[in-house]
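A favour, since you know our structure tokens better than I do. Could you add the entry underneath, on a fresh line?
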Amino acid sequence: MLTPLKKLQSSAQSLEDNIVSFLDELVSLKSVNGSNSEKDTANRIAEEAHKLNLQSQVEALDKNRPNVLISHGEGPFEFLFVAHMDTVAAGTEEAWSSPPFKPTKRDGRIYGRGTADNKAGAACALYAISMMKDLRLIDNKNIKITLAAVSDEESGATSNIGVRHLLDNNLIQAKGAIYTYASDVVCIGHRGLLRLEIATTGKSVHTGGQEWNDGIEGTNAVTGLAAILLKLEATTIDAPPHPAFGNLRNVVTPGTIFKGGEFESVVPANAAAIVDIRLLPGQDPNIVLEQINLLVNHEMKIRPGLKVELRVKNSLPAVALEDNHPLVSIAIDVAQRATDRKWEAVGAGPANEGYMLINSGIPTLCGFGPTGGNAHAANEWVQIDSLTNTVAMYAAIAESYLIDCKKLEAAKQ
């Protein structure tokens, strides 16, 4: 028999001070991707798990960037929560109303880098597991609840040291999962990502020289690259519509990073830029690449001396669960009862590591968690009173879904 949601909400409410205090500490620990290791954050999560009498296991491909698994129970029916410990940089501190790594409470919110993305979710999942243990919601011999706090998601969601490492080494084998991003929807998937680096090479010559003046010598790598980027901006790449993504579409964004030139009076011989392309389910990135290569080859033909190198920096597919999948249906039902409002099942615009889990056979909500906003922007925040409600929802979803999984397995036998 399922635990009444109101009982879970009441129990979670008693944990609010502990959850908020723990989240404050996580936000204070800098784990900016490219600048700080996730090690201190992982250690703090493991320490909190120990205080709550939960099992903890550190797993690392890179010892300075570990993952930590927090669990209760022994399986084989396992439910997984995933939260990444790294954050993006804070940007210009002047844009923030309070210091980004000093969690600040105002207007019922906690402000700080990593609150919504993804440390509040980690705190909620940890306390959901602890609450499920204390309320004895699970049969320890048959069910396991795990939080995987992982490293290096913010590098482009293609890292081999976080979720990928855990999957490849069979360290997570769940029946279902939730990636614990702050969200006001039941996120059933995400768009794909194809990120390219385009580098052009020309030939440098003095801008004041006769050879350049007469068009005899010199090839401008910057304008050659600019021409390619402008044509990419005007290019339409066909994408099949998908009901989970509404008006989200295939988008090509050329030049998210651009660099080029060597000196003010020299025709630039080198330039490089990043091109960011968002894909929908059903799009083959190889076909997209073929289309871009045709455009690049045409530009080289009309610009003698220009050489172009195209490198794939990140590539990951779009994914989406069916909107009638049991995990989706259960999450919608629980969320609506917990919040007294309708929750939509939709796909996310940004990509994340949910595709790794889904493509490994683990049905995953690619974003479901507390109320928050301004991820990757100044004044990132999470709503305090949503934290305990999320703990209750996590527990209710995991309990209900695993009961369904057990019934389905028994029916097969």
Remarks:
- The longest helix spans residues 385-412.
- The CA atoms of residues 116 and 182 lie 5 Å apart.
- The radius of gyration is 24 Å.
